Automatic annotation (TrEMBL):
The keyword Zinc does not apply. The chain crosses the membrane at residues 6-27, 39-64, 84-107, 300-318. This is Peptidase M56 domain-containing protein. It comes from Dorea longicatena. InterPro entries: Beta-lactam_resp_regulator, Peptidase_M56. Keywords: Membrane, Transmembrane, Transmembrane helix. Residues 83-252 form the Peptidase M56 domain. It comes from the Bacteria.
Length: 383
């Protein structure tokens, strides 16, 4: 396996496609939430895992761009900063920032866990709010009632904790809706999905589309749970539920202390982004679509699309390639010591004949031991 431009380019275009795809699911194909949601999300998660390993596997097939991509990639490989090419410098920068972001993420995750532990270990089981929450939250999930004006949330992949603000006035029916919503995240393993996506965002920090994809994906999870409550709660009041979303959002906005909690790796009942609140309320108040004759067909199409993207990201990569030399009338050229040279690049060598690029080599053959090796492309003598 080797790291090259191909996996980076493939990941970039795959994430861009998935961002557009999730947008279509959210705002065009609403019926997709009704069936096979877990399978759709599983397919996206598998694609995410593949995108977090941007290397060429031995079985990958390369699709070469002869003219367009080399215009951008060749200067990165040929120009050097000291002994390193610009590509090597960018690769070091990418890995360094990714490692730092992953470490910061886990530091904040551990810090949040230690903060919440103070409230789970010292919980007052006689507190009416605690008793009411425990009616709807099973014992394996701990409950942390905190003084901050934050949104109710669930966190912790291995040791789940329901986070609930203390200073908010809610009816028992509203508390039930919040608990069932967060409990559904736990049962759907959404916390694991969120963890994987957060790590992928840390790894692909350079790709602007990954942040858009993260936003759309998390919104998809929230709308999916909202729809679950609409279908499975008897006498569900959509207007009341929409008012509850706004109430929690307003309570969160009235106090900036929640920012200091660094609520990482949590799934909040509601956020504070206006566009996301509008989307959730719009879906909540909308009339459920009538069953469609082609709903099964559409689900199959979505599955095929995701499987296709997964197969492409695993087995196919887009690679920049410089064009080979022009063939003579016999389709051959002569290799002699005075017309052959090598250019050292990040992953091997480029072979030049009469100043023209011929191909790439991983190692130097015995026949080329005496051939001149250059480190800069401009040093290569031309025909």
């Amino acid at each position: 396996m080797e790291i090259s431009f191909g996996p980076f380019l493939t990941c970039f275009f795959a994430i861009m496609f998935l961002t557009i795809y999730l947008y279509i699911i959210l705002y065009r194909a609403r019926n997709v939430f009704a069936k096979n949601t877990k399978w759709l999300f599983l397919g996206i998660l598998l694609i995410f895992i593949r995108l977090s390993v941007p290397v060429n596997f031995p079985f990958t097939y390369s699709v070469y761009s002869e003219k367009f991509l080399p215009r951008f990639t060749n200067p990165l490989c040929d120009n050097k900063i000291g002994n390193l090419s610009i590509y090597d410098c960018l690769l070091i920068l990418w890995i360094s920032v990714a490692v730092i972001k992953v470490l910061i993420f886990f530091y904040r995750k551990i810090r949040l866990g230690n903060y919440l532990k103070n409230f789970t270990q010292n919980s007052d089981h006689t507190d009416p709010l605690y008793q009411m929450l425990r009616k709807y939250i099973p014992a394996p999930i701990e409950i942390a009632i905190i003084p901050s004006r934050t949104s109710p949330a669930i966190t912790g992949t291995l040791f789940p904790i329901l986070v609930f603000p203390k200073n908010i006035s809610l009816s028992e029916e509203e508390i039930q809706l919040i608990c069932l919503h967060e409990l559904k995240h736990y049962k759907n393993h959404d916390l694991w999905m969120k963890l994987f996506i957060e790590l992928i965002v840390c790894i692909h920090w350079w790709n602007p589309f990954v942040y858009l994809l993260q936003k759309e994906y998390f919104l998809t999870l929230e709308i999916d749970n909202d729809n679950y409550l609409k279908k499975h709660i008897p006498d569900f009041d959509s207007v009341q539920y929409a008012e509850l979303i706004l109430k929690i959002a307003k309570n969160t906005l009235t106090d900036g202390s929640s920012d200091s909690l660094q609520m990482v790796d949590t799934i909040n009942f509601t956020g504070t982004v206006t566009s996301e609140l509008e989307s959730r309320i719009t879906f909540t108040l909308s009339t459920p679509d009538a069953p469609r004759r082609h709903s099964l067909f559409r689900s199959v199409i979505h599955t095929i699309i995701l499987c296709g993207v997964l197969i492409i990201t695993i087995f196919v990569v887009i690679e920049p390639s410089s064009p080979g030399p022009s063939s003579d009338t016999n389709g051959t050229f002569t290799l002699e010591d005075d017309n052959v040279c090598l250019l050292k690049v990040h992953n091997g060598y480029h072979l030049y004949v009469n100043g023209k690029y011929v191909g790439a080599l991983d190692t130097i053959p015995d026949d080329f031991k005496n051939v001149t090796i250059y480190t800069r492309k401009e040093e290569i003598p031309h025909e």
